[in-house]
Amino acid sequence: MRRVSVFGATGSIGQSTLDLIGRGAYDVVALSGGSNIGQLARDAIRLRADVAVTAFDDKLSDLRDALAGSGVAAAAGKTALEEAADRPADWIMSAIVGAAGLTPGLRALRHGTTLALANKESLVCAGPLLMAEARRHGATILPVDSEHSAVFQTLVGEDMAAVEKVIITGSGGGLRDWPLARLAEATPEQAGKHPNWDMGQRITIDSASMMNKAMELIETKEFFGLPPEMIDTIIHPQSLIHALVQFNDGALMAHLGTPDMRHAIGYALNWPDRGPVPVERLDLAKVAQLDFHAPDPARYPALDLARRVMGQGGLSGAAFNAAKEAALDLFLARAIRFTDMAPLVARVLDQMDADNRLEADTLSLDMVQDTDTRARQIARDLA
Ligand code: NAD
Ligand code: MG
């Protein structure tokens, strides 16, 4: 039986992953969560995990109580998360939200495992480090972001030298049709509703600002090793085409499917084979029409930030991700407006650039974490 672990098991991606795991025969090693102890314990008991880990130390006694008599071990805190990633497993889902997902993923790669990577923040803040670690230990990273899974699938059997362009689609988010002048009034509740995808709150707001697409452009560069000028995005309101790859003979290959993350998760779980996944099938006759338009840079300033980060490399991704997370925290706390987020991130990058803090030939975990801490502090100071 394949041994699997799921980090961020109580979240949106985590729950979809457990849904698929629960339908098959897997040996569940570790599940991790945050403060939703009831869910974590129920899933760990139901799936007979060896250990359940909460990220938060002060939740340990609650978790112990919830697991009492079940035979599932309880653990808590950052170190426990890393130790859980050290437990031998054949397949590990990295679905913690935010930069907190980086270290468990890195630890898992050191054991040569297959890492299904939903945590795009790891690639944005430390792409070269993650990819080098995977190479060094013979580990495999499989993309779980829907766009990147789509590109990955489209590239099977293809020669990268024949690729001209990779285009990832974006829905434009929940505020896509709002007049520009009203965007400044948007509340977290309004920005937190997605037209097509059912996702965690943070990524849903990042979709409305297209900060998520900015992250995904950088993710494309880091994962597929492509130069920025070969990577593009287009608004496709229906979210049925997830990505397209253009080849040097003029062929444009698209990946289509209903917006259900269980497709990308299932592809990674079954890889290198395909296996049945219970997602709704796409009925093109019913869909009838697919729409596209270029994103307006005034509405989505995050896309320019992505170009800047892709061009600069070094520690700019770590600074960008941390500043973006800090800006989102401030927006959620109603301390800044929706439209203040991208300019705030730009000012953090400006300041760190002026202080010569973003240049680096090779990345270390310490450098990334130091940049992360500093960028969050600067964002809070500037806000
Ligand atoms: P979510 O908020 O629903 O779940 C996040 C998970 O991380 C939960 O299990 C939570 O307990 C845990 N967590 C939160 N803070 C933590 C911390 N400090 N330390 C350890 N664990 C912590 O998020 P989600 O929407 O499932 O997204 C998870 C990841 O997948 C993100 O990186 C996101 O960008 C990516 N992703 C999500 C979707 C989607 O459809 N939801 C699609 C593509 C990519
Ligand atoms: Mg995506």
TrEMBL record:
EC number(s) per entry: 1.1.1.267
Domain DXP reductoisomerase C-terminal: 256-377
Chain positions recorded as NADPH binding sites: 10-13, 34, 36, 119, 121, 200
Catalytic activity: 2-C-methyl-D-erythritol 4-phosphate + NADP(+) = 1-deoxy-D-xylulose 5-phosphate + NADPH + H(+)
Residues annotated as domain 1-deoxy-D-xylulose 5-phosphate reductoisomerase N-terminal: 4-127
InterPro entries linked: DXP_reductoisomerase, DXP_reductoisomerase_C, DXP_reductoisomerase_N, DXPR_C, DXPR_C_sf, NAD(P)-bd_dom_sf
Pathway the protein contributes to: Isoprenoid biosynthesis; isopentenyl diphosphate biosynthesis via DXP pathway; isopentenyl diphosphate from 1-deoxy-D-xylulose 5-phosphate: step 1/6
Needed cofactors: Mg(2+); Mn(2+)
Matches recorded under HAMAP family: DXP_reductoisom
Family: Belongs to the DXR family.
Known function: Catalyzes the NADPH-dependent rearrangement and reduction of 1-deoxy-D-xylulose-5-phosphate (DXP) to 2-C-methyl-D-erythritol 4-phosphate (MEP).
Protein name, as recorded: 1-deoxy-D-xylulose 5-phosphate reductoisomerase
Gene name in the database record: dxr
